[in-house]
Amino acid sequence: MCQLMGMSANVPTDALFSFTGLVERAGRTDVHRDGWGISFYQGKGSQDFRGLNAGSDCEVAQFLKTQKIKSDIVVGHIRQANVGALTLENTHPFRRELWGRYFTFAHNGQIEGIFDQLTLGRFKPVGSTDSEHIFCWLLHEIEQAFPEPPVDPKPLYDLIYRHLGKLHAQGVCNVLLTDGSVLIAYCSNRLQWITRRAPFGSALLKDIELEVDFATETTVNDVVTVIATQALTTNETWQSFEPNELMVFEQGELNYQVKATD
Amino acid sequence: MCQLMGMSANVPTDALFSFTGLVERAGRTDVHRDGWGISFYQGKGSQDFRGLNAGSDCEVAQFLKTQKIKSDIVVGHIRQANVGALTLENTHPFRRELWGRYFTFAHNGQIEGIFDQLTLGRFKPVGSTDSEHIFCWLLHEIEQAFPEPPVDPKPLYDLIYRHLGKLHAQGVCNVLLTDGSVLIAYCSNRLQWITRRAPFGSALLKDIELEVDFATETTVNDVVTVIATQALTTNETWQSFEPNELMVFEQGELNYQVKATD
């Protein structure tokens, strides 16, 4: 299994604090030492970093802990490999272009035995992970339904929800997905989130002794949502997604939500 | 205009020396200060780095000068913007997946007034550069001719040559392109290359006082080709491409060549 970390903000914000906590779990406080990767979107483009070492040992990851890269959207992943060799093409997040937008996808979980049912179209996996296979299938399904980006995105979010729900029914499929404009998070069994806004306070990381006072780092208008497999801080209240629940964050705010109805 | 740097090697090799010379030109010894990017392939996947600052000032680029990232193929670019804003989506190299391979493209030059003739298919530009437009068009043309990767790649190389030749006829179009297995270099007006093999000697960078003794860094079986817009060293003999010439490098060796015949 792996762990996910995402961020959505209404002003370019650095995800340094959350990243610092996440990479501790990449070999030090947890077992996710089989590579890591992170995409920092600024508008339609992104800076991406990845490595095959455990994030907690990796020089690139350590360097990133010194960099305040301001982003609108972040998608990060630390890997504990189950399917697919330890190669760069098997590290998350994965990237494809659709509609002239870079879609970025990271997955935590494992789906077995249904790949024959997942028809791939023009998006072909480069590596051998089930995760990249799922991503390629999902993009194909999106493009089949929406050859052009829909004016009202809700039917698109509903389609993503239904398709990830099919995987959830047969395995574990926690997902972060972005097109650079919104951050979509789907929970299969484990995902938490927190929205920080004024009045900002201090936060304490869970995995390493580090405290930040967000009041000194933000303005009163800032809204920043962080999503993680497990809460990254100890002194804040994180909310848990329900199993089979999808949320869409735009500029830091939750703007769409679908979940299983009884 | 911009500058290009590429590497092809038969063993994973760090391109640190060449990168160090290149980034000097990104604002210190030359004017290419409008962003930079580099892809280090290891097998089918890659580690990518890019930034919007001048490479010579950029902390990420400075950090990379401390990292010996071993690669089979490298594609690097420093930008002096002429078309397209200073945004991450407009920094080279560009990336798309075709045939389950990551294609990476960097361009130096400017093509004007022929975009109406360049039909785009499923590959859509995310940014606004002529370079990304060319890349998307070229991949579309490749896919139209070869829905599957050809067993004999020579007709593919010939097609790329013909298509880049059309651009060369109407502007300047120096290109580095890779699919992770070969490095394709096309010269429109300015491109040089050198193949280093045993017996290895010392090399002196042109843009900064730095010498490396490759004999201490290599084995006798290593073969490494470096391509650059302009020779990166002063004490070695670089060969110049001819205008409208394409070369394909595989595992450090030149294995295919097409040029204009009189």
From the structure above, extract its key features.
homodimer; alpha+beta; Glutamine Phosphoribosylpyrophosphate, subunit 1, domain 1; seven-stranded antiparallel β-sheet; six-stranded antiparallel β-sheet
Topology:
Two copies of one chain form a homodimer.
Chain A: E1 3-14, H1 16-24, E2 36-42, E3 45-51, H2 59-64, E4 70-78, E5 94-98, E6 101-111, H3 130-145, H4 154-168, E7 171-178, E8 183-187, E9 192-197, E10 202-204, E11 211-213, E12 223-228, E13 239-240, E14 245-250, E15 253-259
Antiparallel strand pairs in A: 1-4, 1-12, 2-3, 2-4, 5-6, 6-7, 7-8, 8-14, 9-12, 9-13, 10-11, 14-15
Q: Summarize the biggest pleated sheet of chain A.
A: 7 strands, antiparallel
The total domain count of chain A is 1
Proportion in helices of chain A: 10-25%
- Pair of chains with the largest interface and how many residues each contributes: A-B, 33 and 34 residues
Structural class of chain A: alpha+beta
Output the helix-strand order of chain A: EHEEHEEEHHEEEEEEEEE
| CATH structural architecture of chain A | 4-Layer Sandwich
CATH class of chain A: Alpha Beta
Quaternary assembly: homodimer
Q: What is the CATH H-level superfamily of chain A?
A: Aminohydrolase, N-terminal nucleophile (Ntn) domain
User: Beta-strand percentage of chain A?
Assistant: 35-45%
N/C terminus separation of chain A: 29 Å
Mean pLDDT of chain A, nearest integer?
A: 93
